[in-house]
Amino acid sequence: MEIIDMITKRKLKKMMSVLFISGCFFIGNTKCKGADLEY
What pTM value is reported for the model? Predict the structure, then answer.
C-alpha cells in the first residue's frame, strides 16, 4: 500500500508541475520560471 501511495503522490506531483508550467505559459507570466523550481 505504501509503495502504491508513493507512486500516486509522485504522479500527482508531476501532473501538478505540468499543469502549473502549462498554465503559466498560457498566461505568459515571467515569474513562473522561478516558481516552477519549487515542485
Answer: 0.47
